[in-house]
Design a protein that fits this description.
The chain is an alpha/beta fold. It has twelve helices and eight strands. The protein binds NADPH dihydro-nicotinamide-adenine-dinucleotide phosphate and (2S)-3,4-dihydro-2H-pyrrole-2-carboxylic acid. The site of (2S)-3,4-dihydro-2H-pyrrole-2-carboxylic acid (A1CAB) has 4 residues, from α7.
């Protein structure tokens, strides 16, 4: 049984823990370090996992340690964890946006480290994760990291670490883009007079249906789009409006802003840590 420790028991840790438990990982295999008593109590109540106030207590005996704190919290956990990690020498997995492998090695010492970027749909087994490993990660550890993230969705290894900020901007932040689009669709339909409950139900189901067609049918998004678009019909009118407003450019700029923010997060840490 692989013993897992999570440092930080927030949104992402909860998504990953929930997903892992659904795949049959026993509750006894997971420990979490979380500073807030209320959050610790909730982790025990909802997931049945052991939660500790002290980070080193969660790490004791762990084969794999997942750093699931905000990038800005890394300097605060570094000193307390470094010795425990060096004693235990687990596979270290970081999910922090922007934080680079060389920074993790500098803070926590020479360890096998996988930097990865999952997303919140991991909670329902529909996550998407990009991973990159440092040179100390052995083939079995690489398989171990992939196994953990495979348990909560799709995984892809990324060869060039610089592209992890692109992965963050695409799939890490991506669920929020779709949620924002559903919010906007719902609001637009309400503005035209549809009851909000009806607008939300139709928008959500449309998102689900489109997502399932994309993932289950194997056809390219462009082909699926063309099939909805009758010549001179309603969809064409909407897509032309999107194009006139520069949808492609809007999305490209947003993804560039997210990737840039990932780089900035790492640069800010270089200055402070
Ligand atoms: N949210 C997302 O969709 C995704 C997030 N990520 C990355 O995952 C990481 C976590 O994000 P997210 O889960 O959203 O953030 P959260 O704030 O929900 O979770 C972070 C947790 O870490 C806890 N924490 C704070 N300080 C410490 C400490 N010193 N020791 C141990 N735990 C501590 C926080 O407790 P408290 O609340 O008391 O401060 C909180 O419970 C980030 O680095 C983010 O970049 C990656 C992919 C997707
Ligand atoms: O917004 C963030 O910084 C994190 C990383 C990816 C998703 N949420």
């Amino acid at each position: 049984m692989t013993r897992l420790a999570f440092i930080g028991g927030g949104n992402m840790a909860r998504s990953l823990i929930g997903g892992l438990l659904k795949t049959g990982v026993p509750t006894g295999a997971i420990r979490v370090a979380e500073p807030q008593a209320g959050a610790r109590e909730a982790l025990g109540r909802e997931f049945g996992v052991a939660a500790y106030a002290e980070n080193p207590l969660a790490v004791a005996d762990a084969d794999v340690v997942v750093l699931a704190v905000k990038p800005q919290v890394m300097p605060a956990i570094r000193d307390g964890l470094r010795d425990a990690l060096q004693r235990q020498r687990p596979l270290l997995i970081s999910i922090a946006a922007g934080v680079r492998l060389d920074q993790l090695e500098r803070w926590f010492g020479a360890l096998p480290i996988v930097r990865c970027m999952p997303n919140t749909p991991a909670l329902i087994g529909a996550g998407a994760t990009g991973l990159v490993a440092n040179a100390r990660v052995s083939p079995p550890q690489r398989a171990q990291a992939q196994h953990i993230l495979d348990a909560v969705g799709l995984t892809r290894w990324i060869d060039d670490e610089r592209l992890m900020d692109t992965v963050t901007a695409l799939s890490g932040s991506g669920p929020a883009y779709f949620f924002a689009l559903v919010e906007a669709l719902e609001d637009a339909a309400v503005a035209q007079g549809l009851p909000r409950e009806t607008a939300r139900a139709l928008a959500v189901q449309t998102c689900l249906g489109a997502g399932r067609m994309l993932s289950e049918g194997g056809e390219a998004p462009g082909e699926l789009r063309r099939r909805v678009t009758s010549p001179n019909g309603t969809t064409q009118a909407a897509l032309e409006s999107f194009a006139a407003d520069g949808l492609g450019r809007i999305v490209a700029r947003a993804v560039a802003a997210a990737a840039r923010r990932g780089e900035e997060l790492a640069a800010e840490l270089d200055k402070t840590a």
